[in-house]
Amino acid sequence: MAEQTTNTFREDLPKLYGDWGVDSEIGKLRSVLMRRPGKEIENITREDSERLAFVMTDGDDYDPELVRKQHDEVARIYRENGVQVNYVEEMDESCPNAMFCRDLVLGTPEGVIMARPGIAVRVPEVKYAAQAAAKLGVPIIKTVNGSGTFDGACVFWIDRETVIFGTGTRCNQSGYDQVSEELYNMGVKNIYKLSIPRRLKHLDGMLSIADHDVALAFSRSTPEIVYEALEKRGFRVLEIPTLEERDNLAANLVALEPGKVLMPAGNPLTKKLLTEAGVECIEVDISEIKKGGGALHCITAFLKRDPVPVYPVKE
Length: 315
Known about the structure:
Blueprint: H1 9-16, E1 29-34, H2 64-80, E2 84-87, E3 105-108, E4 111-114, H3 125-136, E5 140-143, E6 155-159, E7 162-167, H4 173-185, E8 190-195, E9 207-211, E10 214-217, H5 224-231, E11 236-239, H6 243-247, E12 254-257, E13 260-264, H7 268-276, E14 280-284, E15 301-305
Parallel strand pairs: 1-2, 4-5, 7-8, 10-11, 13-14
Antiparallel strand pairs: 1-15, 3-4, 6-7, 9-10, 12-13
């Protein structure tokens, strides 16, 4: 009789699929999935509300070439810091929100979970993101289905055993149940569930982690359960000092490695806080991208980060 499988999926992953996996927001970033905006963002105006998952902000209509130029600059900085940048090459031209890949793909320790957006116009995007992930050899361990809705940016990793999980307009109870089941299957022990304020939609509008002991939050939006989860694990939670910098998406940054972040330009007070806490900050102008309602964390789906230790809990 053939020998039965005794390995876990995680143990088989490197040999069968490659070196993928995400269990934090700060482990050294190795590989990402992005969508360089194509024809889908051309001829988008402020009056196209039925086609958009956002209310276009900051003045004039999209300048497609400037969006692409800024997107290319982000990708250049990633590569300069040793990150493999992979692209979703194909896309339905009726999907102007597709550059916000984090909403489509949740990286986990065992591969990716594909979302099912709560906004109808975004649903077709997932097919193309899934095709790109599969082409790379990244295992797709779950696609949210049935009546479930879920955006990848509704989950935030603290460490291998702990996540913050937000529900709201972009994630319903079915989506939460489906994704939570998979997270528990792969060893997550602590899920801090909260309701995301309607105006913010995703966790990265109010929260980020910058180092092993440094987090960033906007206190008027961030519930106590988040402070509890982080402070019990030894984090200092710095508070974004103004509503203006919160609205300028100061929290929507990407850690390149522990203590080094890429952040949206134009948030000097938040940058000062992070720098004084020992975090190296690289700024990038994404003013045109931000018209779409998202920033750096939104346009970046994480496929591979180096593991971080499980943080001891202080009672």
